[in-house]
Here is the input.
Amino acid sequence: MNLLYLGLSVFLFFLNFSYYHFLRLFICANFVQMFQNLRCTNVQMNEEVAIKLGY
Here is the structure.
């Protein structure tokens, strides 16, 4: 019974760890994508402003 409980807690620990790791990777990827999108729209806005000003 003790061995089963130990196995279960170790399994849950690894599951929790991998889930947290996956979540962290997912959040990091989202932040990078969001930052790239922000930078792209910023460049597009700058180009539009430059075109309107006649550069």
Summary: Residues 22-55 form one domain. The CA atoms of residues 3 and 9 lie 10 Å apart. DSSP finds one helix and no strands in the chain.
